[in-house]
Amino acid sequence: MAAxxxxxxxxxxxxxxxxxxxxxxxxxxxxxxxxxxxILALLWLFMLGGMKRQLVPGRWQxxxxxVTGFVESMLSMSVGPQGRKFVPWVFTIFMFILFANLLGLMxxxxxxxxPFTVTSQFxxxxxxxxxxxxxxxxxGFWRHKLHxxxxxxxxxxxxxxxxxxxxxxxxxxxxxxxxxxxRLFVAMIAGHILVEVFANFVVQGLNAGGAIGPxxxxxxFVFIIGVMALEILVCAIQAYVFALLTSLYINDAxxxx
Length: 257
Fold this sequence. Notes:
Strand order of the largest sheet: 1-2
Strand content: under 5%
Distance between the termini: 58 Å
Oligomer: single chain
């Protein structure tokens, strides 16, 4: 019973102050802030190593150019030629999410460092979603003024149907930042909880002894390997989905589709 009481899969998502106090200090440096700085430093090193602009690019430069080309191609297909001006933002969120997701999976606990997955915090994914949505609104009203509201009125819709469709389209549009943020948040937190739960099964199975304990530990360990492999895939997919949906939303603002 004592071993069971120590199981807390949510403990890994707890924000802890490293400097300052969460109970009233206006300036608090937390583990979440620390890992965001680490992510930004890794992104800076990644881009620095790929901006040598050699005539014959090395592997690092080719990798950086490949990622930027991938994001630019995604925006060109989603928005058109005008999508190029949005490459800096979409590239930034794509790389930040990708690095944050992957860094949270690193087995750094083997050397006494516990990684913190910042994208498992709804405040982080929410801020990125709100910023993307703000870009959509600013672009839409800047380019189309009040005609931007025509986005909620499908072309050729009879008047009576408009009374029903327009509110639905408006509500669907306004929940976009929430769905964008919660999709990434849930995907990250769910995978980490699964790994934590199966890891506790491994430990408890070994402590239980007997014949069935090690068997449960072995099966749980196999599940951990499977979940970790899936998590690596999900890390990339979630970064891509966030960037792609942002591109599609920008397309609505630019082209009023």
